[in-house]
UniProtKB/TrEMBL annotation:
Protein name: DNA photolyase
Pfam family, one: Abhydrolase_6
InterPro entries referenced in this protein's UniProt entry, alphabetically: AB_hydrolase_1 (IPR000073), AB_hydrolase_fold (IPR029058), Crypto/Photolyase_N_sf (IPR036155), DNA_photolyase_N (IPR006050), Rossmann-like_a/b/a_fold (IPR014729)
Keyword match Lyase: yes
Coiled-coil regions listed in the entry: none
Keywords in alphabetical order: Lyase
PROSITE patterns noted in UniProt: PHR_CRY_ALPHA_BETA
Keyword field contains Lyase: yes
SUPFAM superfamilies: alpha/beta-Hydrolases, Cryptochrome/photolyase, N-terminal domain
GO molecular function: lyase activity
Photolyase/cryptochrome alpha/beta domain sequence ranges: 1-76
Length: 601
């Protein structure tokens, strides 16, 4: 309806983009295909496929071209000149661009099959016929949360994994049967609502509906008699897991889908701020927490999008960086190798995928496919305003294996990253072949009788203050701290590594990540998590680790974890970077030995 009001229309097609787009181009004799510029690997790959298909067309005019467009938040002429530090970027004092008025569009007078809005059954049929669709047993692994598995207990986790497929299928069948009647009932109830469901917090619908919900959000401090605004205020309170977190929880999907742009949100927030302050903007901050939440969130999102876009256009790093979107957040990763077993490398706290700088290629050259990921909150991956927990990071890793790797993998982790790996292995063993723990965090608890389940965590005043003091200390002492972790080869803690850690410490959202240190709960015993993996666990331990008692840790593994293999190294906390050749050899031999053994199904 919106397009028709502007003189155009919406065309709907099902199928493979590289087949359908060239067909349409040939029909209308087009010379350009306008495509929104994306940063995610899968979407950029699809655009490349379409471009390759267009190159095979022979039209009367010149070869059809892909024309990339975007809604720039800032007027940046060249991404090559984008500062690496967010603090330097802020010093540029770039003014956000203003949103544009809806343009009139040229009428299309050619006779075309415009298609029709599909029914639910049409969409379901198309998805089921998709040859690249993963099996239900694989994709359903993501359906059950870590907390639910832990609540089930040690004897129930395998049964839960086996049963979840049937539960999901039953649920889908029931939902399909009841969809028509439920939707009709909800439609009337939600007619004036901006939310896609009564219980959920996701704002959706047409642009005018989302903008109305944004106005309600910004004006939270004002009283209102509007039912739809009162609903927004109620959802805001429920979604405020920490100060300012509610904005992205409510509007993240609308921003991702392009119903509204980041610059439109900023424009509306600043316009309202001026209304509250007689046309002025205070140099001391915003006058309402909701204005700050909206403006700060979209500015932060734009920074990470620009960094992601720069990594895709310039590709100047040690590896070819790809972008994966998880729950709406931008995650960086790399993959090397075309065949062989899948191996996933997971870094520790404060590090990033490049911490495996001398491991990725060497391990892949031994006949493996190697993925390295920069976890949410670290490196150049996004640092959103959320509550970070060890279970959240574990679920991210689980989803990465399911969505990106696409098959069970050998998981390798260092420090806290090794603890995340252990959680994934213990709670979702179907996605893991074997586990390699390098100077892991966590502990072995003899004779544990139960597994503690952490309740929802809220940020504390102590964590707020502690994160700021810690950041100040880290910026002053990060070089010495890192060198101290490289006990026998301090030269590996070089300027590049330290500079990259310092760079990340300037990113927006870093204080929220640091707060998680004061709320970490590593109470799930490693021996509980590794119990299903007897004979499939390799422990690599730097014996001069200043952060742990290596001798004691290894003695506990030997006594309480059956079938673990232990390799000791004359190294500190990060043996994979301090002694990469030896660690690479251990991992290569371990994976090769595993793959040669017949595995029980």
């Amino acid at each position: 309806m919106s397009l028709k009001n502007q003189g155009s229309d919406l065309m709907i097609r099902f199928g493979v983009a590289e087949n359908i787009i060239p067909e349409l181009v040939s029909q209308v004799n087009a010379v350009e295909v306008f495509v929104e510029e994306e940063v995610e690997y899968t979407l950029r790959k699809m655009i490349d496929f379409v471009d390759q298909s267009l190159s095979t067309l022979t039209l009367s005019q010149k070869r059809p071209q892909i024309a990339l467009w975007q809604t720039p938040f800032y007027d940046i002429k060249s991404l090559k000149e984008l500062p690496t530090l967010y603090s330097d970027f802020e010093k540029l004092k770039l003014s956000p661009t203003s949103p544009l008025e809806c343009p009139g569009l040229p009428r299309c007078d050619i006779e075309l099959d415009w298609g029709s809005v599909p029914t639910f059954d049409d969409v379901k049929r198309y998805m089921n016929e998709n040859p690249w669709k993963p099996s239900k047993s694989w994709s359903s692994i993501k359906a059950v949360s870590a907390k639910n598995i832990l609540k089930k207990g040690r004897f129930g986790r395998v049964e839960m994994e086996n049963d979840m497929i049937e539960v999901l299928e039953d649920s889908v069948e029931r939902n399909q049967v009841n969809l028509g009647s439920e939707w009709r009932a909800q439609r009337k109830r939600l007619e004036n609502s901006a939310f896609l469901s009564k219980k959920g917090n996701v704002v959706g619908g047409r642009t005018s509906v989302v903008l109305n919900a944004l106005s309600a959000y910004l004006r939270y401090l004002e009283g209102t008699s509007k039912d739809e605004w009162q609903e927004v205020h109620e959802k805001l309170r429920n979604a405020e897991s920490r100060s300012g977190a509610s904005f992205r929880a409510l509007f993240g999907s609308a921003l991702f889908l392009g119903i509204i742009s980041r610059r439109r949100v900023y424009y509306e927030a600043i316009k309202y701020e001026r209304e509250r302050n007689a046309g002025f903007l205070s140099p001391f901050g915003y006058s309402a927490a909701t204005i700050a939440a909206a403006a700060d969130t979209v500015c932060s999102m734009e920074w990470y999008w620009l960094m992601a876009l720069k990594s895709q256009r310039n590709n100047e790093g040690r590896y070819s960086v790809r972008i994966w979107r998880w729950n709406g957040y931008l995650i960086q990763y790399t993959v090397v190798g075309r065949e062989g077993p899948a191996i996933v490398l997971v870094h520790g706290f404060g590090a990033f995928l490049e911490h495996y700088r001398d491991n990725v290629y060497d391990i892949s050259e031994a006949g493996n496919r190697v993925w390295a990921i920069t976890l949410l909150g670290f490196g150049k991956s996004e640092k959103p305003n959320i509550v970070y927990t060890e279970l959240m990071w574990a679920e991210l890793l689980r989803d990465f294996i399911v969505d990106v790797v696409g098959e069970p993998a050998h998981l390798v982790g260092n420090s806290i990253g090794a603890y995340f790996v252990a959680i994934v292995a213990g709670l979702w063993p179907a996605v893991v072949k074997s586990v390699v723990l390098i100077n892991t965090a966590g502990s072995v608890v003899p004779g544990y009788s139960s597994v503690p389940i952490t309740e929802e965590r809220r940020p504390s005043g102590a964590a707020w203050l502690g994160s700021r003091l810690l950041l100040f200390y880290l910026k002053l002492r990060v070089g010495n701290i890192v060198k101290n972790c490289y006990s026998t080869n301090t030269g590996r803690a070089d300027d590049w590594l330290i500079d990259e850690m310092l760079r990340a410490s300037h990113d927006p959202g870093v204080l929220v990540v640091l707060e998680s240190i004061f709320n970490f709960n590593l109470s799930i015993p490693l021996n509980y998590l590794l119990e299903p993996f007897e004979g499939k666990v390799l422990i690599i331990q730097g014996m001069k680790d200043p952060l742990s008692k290596s001798e004691y840790m290894l003695s506990m593994f030997k006594e309480h974890c059956n079938g673990v293999i232990i390799k000791e190294l004359d190294a500190g906390h990060c043996p994979h970077d301090e002694r990469p050749e030896e660690v690479n050899s251990f991992i290569h031999e371990w994976v090769e030995t595993y793959e040669r053994k017949p595995q029980l199904c």
